[in-house]
């Protein structure tokens, strides 16, 4: 009998801690629905004490998810735990995840607390959390650099206080696979009441070892892995969900456990997260990269045609690559559009929003013959952005770009409802458009990244543009989609400026 490996997805919390990856409440709910469809066991929806916005997002996820447990993160502080407890209240199944650092460097330099005080605070935190739910997870932050004896002491105490999951984070991605696996084995062996809790791991990818370390821990008896879609997360990211799940599924000859994940939902989840956060997936990324199942060399192609398993250890359709269905075209009606949205798990909250999305769908169908699920996701994202009360909106854009001439853009944007025109030259049509927008906005931001992705294939595909801007230490990503990539670029730029204009007072749980 195989045991269950619990998949705890933290895309909406640790993933959101990637600079520029912050998500709106609506975006979080859309991603959470996709995670639920994929049968993720636990969704860490955010850090409710960070801000009112984060609190509301966790609450909204808790209210809309029925089949996965919804978790809120809290430092080992009574107020944080109360916020997390309130936020997960609407959930069918809710969890509080509380943490405190246990490595000598974190206790001394960051917390300025003695080891005894840390144990006392951890125990109190778990007891406070138990007042809200009997599903309580405890993490000794920076466990990967903590002393094993101290870990045994604090973990035994928190199990006694009521923690049901013990998560061992390699917060700074310092461990090596063999070492991390034996840490898990030692903790399970030495903590007298270790059988009363599930051991979990949470690995960061600073040395590119997050997945390897997590799998080594699973081989040593961990039964929950914390991971994110596309490996999103602080700095170099977290262990990638798709790699963990497919490694365990593909090597059932080695693992004595398996996940309950519907792997055909992996590629749609990857695309959704990439589209919403603006973090493109590298083409050679395992499982979800565009080239993950592409065979370039003649020898490989020949082998795959003769017998697929000569060069493929997984089937592309098993991870959702075939889910790229052509859904509709120019003649599809409003009802067909509405039912496709329902199938895709997209809920628009008013008839007005549905009408606006349908009008955009018709516009798109005029320009593009075949409309795929990805196109629908992109147009709904764009529509959601358009419905939000935004400071800046694109009214019109005209760009002249000709061989031997300097590109010139004329733009009109609405600034708080007032239309303002401007024009500028630039090094290219996109540069000219951004400069024209800047004549009006004068944002003083620095452009950190500009990227264009095809949402589907073909030259009539919609281009999805991501723009990353930074100002005064804040970093934001903006997205825009259109069959015209210059228009998509202007929309992305304005989207990023709107995010900068919106005050986002939030804190990082670990700082
Ligand atoms: O990396 C880390 O230590 C964390 C904890 C909050 C679990 O994200
Ligand atoms: Zn983390």
From TrEMBL:
Catalyzes the condensation of the acetyl group of acetyl-CoA with 3-methyl-2-oxobutanoate (2-ketoisovalerate) to form 3-carboxy-3-hydroxy-4-methylpentanoate (2-isopropylmalate). Mn(2+) binds at residues 14, 202, 204, 238. Keywords: Acyltransferase, Amino-acid biosynthesis, Branched-chain amino acid biosynthesis, Cytoplasm, Leucine biosynthesis, Manganese, Metal-binding, Transferase. NCBIfam families: leuA_bact (TIGR00973), PRK00915.1-3 (NF002086), PRK00915.1-4 (NF002087). Its EC number is 2.3.3.13. Gene3D superfamilies: 1.10.238.260, 3.30.160.270, Aldolase class I. Residues 5-267 form the Pyruvate carboxyltransferase domain. PROSITE patterns: AIPM_HOMOCIT_SYNTH_1 (PS00815), AIPM_HOMOCIT_SYNTH_2 (PS00816), PYR_CT (PS50991). It catalyses: 3-methyl-2-oxobutanoate + acetyl-CoA + H2O = (2S)-2-isopropylmalate + CoA + H(+). Homodimer. GO terms for biological process: L-leucine biosynthetic process. GO terms for cellular component: cytosol. CDD domains: DRE_TIM_IPMS. InterPro entries: 2-IPM_HCS-like, 2-isopropylmalate_synth_dimer, AIPM/Hcit_synth_CS, Aldolase_TIM, LeuA/HCS_post-cat, LeuA_allosteric_dom_sf, LeuA_bact_synth, PYR_CT. This is 2-isopropylmalate synthase. Belongs to the alpha-IPM synthase/homocitrate synthase family. LeuA type 1 subfamily. One of its GO terms (molecular function) is manganese ion binding. It is an enzyme of class 2 (transferase). Residues 393-511 are annotated as: Regulatory domain.
């Amino acid at each position: 009998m195989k045991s269950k490996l619990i998949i705890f997805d933290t895309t909406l919390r640790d993933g959101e801690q990637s600079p520029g990856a912050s998500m709106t409440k609506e975006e979080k709910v859309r991603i959470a629905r996709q995670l639920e469809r994929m049968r993720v066991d636990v969704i860490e929806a955010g850090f409710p004490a960070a801000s009112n916005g984060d609190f509301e997002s966790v609450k909204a996820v808790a209210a809309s998810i029925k089949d996965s447990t919804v978790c809120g993160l809290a430092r080992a502080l009574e107020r944080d735990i109360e916020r997390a407890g309130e936020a997960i209240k609407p959930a069918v199944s809710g969890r509080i995840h509380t943490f405190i650092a246990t490595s000598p460097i974190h206790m001394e330099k960051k917390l300025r607390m003695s080891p005894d005080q840390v144990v006392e605070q951890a125990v109190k935190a778990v007891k406070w959390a138990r007042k809200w739910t009997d599903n309580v997870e405890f993490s000794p932050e920076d466990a990967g650099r903590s002393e094993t004896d101290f870990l045994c002491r604090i973990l035994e105490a928190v199990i006694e206080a009521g923690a049901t999951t013990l998560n061992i984070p390699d917060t700074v991605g310092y461990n090596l696979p063999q070492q991390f696996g034996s840490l898990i084995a030692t903790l399970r062996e030495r903590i007298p009441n270790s059988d009363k809790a599930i051991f979990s791991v949470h690995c960061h990818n600073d040395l590119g070892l997050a997945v390897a370390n997590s799998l080594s821990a699973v081989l040593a008896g961990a039964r929950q892995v914390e991971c994110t879609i596309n490996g999103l997360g602080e700095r170099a990211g977290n262990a990638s969900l798709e790699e963990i799940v497919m490694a365990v599924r593909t090597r059932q000859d080695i693992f004595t456990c398996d996940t309950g994940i519907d792997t055909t939902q992996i590629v749609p989840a990857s695309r959704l997260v990439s589209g919403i956060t603006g973090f493109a997936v590298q083409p050679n990324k395992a499982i979800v990269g565009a080239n993950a199942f592409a065979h370039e060399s003649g020898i490989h192609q020949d082998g795959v045609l003769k017998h697929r398993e000569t060069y493929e250890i997984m089937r592309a359709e098993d991870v959702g690559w075939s889910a790229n269905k052509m859904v509709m075209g120019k003649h599809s009606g409003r009802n067909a559009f509405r039912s496709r949205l329902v199938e895709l798990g997209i809920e628009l909250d008013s008839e007005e929003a549905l009408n606006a999305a349908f009008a955009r769908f018709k516009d798109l169908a005029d320009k593009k013959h075949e409309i795929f699920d990805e196109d629908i996701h992109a147009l709904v994202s764009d529509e959601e952005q358009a419905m939000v009360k935004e400071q800046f909106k694109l009214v019109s854009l005209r760009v002249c770009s000709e061989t031997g001439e300097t590109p010139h853009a004329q733009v009109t944007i609405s600034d708080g409802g007032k239309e303002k025109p401007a024009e500028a030259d630039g090094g290219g049509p996109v540069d000219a458009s951004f400069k024209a927008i800047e004549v009006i906005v004068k944002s003083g931001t620095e452009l950190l990244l500009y990227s264009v992705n095809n949402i589907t294939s073909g030259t009539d595909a919609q281009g999805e543009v991501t723009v990353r801007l930074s100002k005064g230490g804040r970093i934001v990503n903006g997205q825009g989609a259109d069959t015209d990539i210059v228009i998509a670029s202007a929309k992305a730029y304005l989207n990023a400026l709107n995010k900068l204009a919106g005050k986002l007072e939030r804190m990082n749980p670990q700082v």
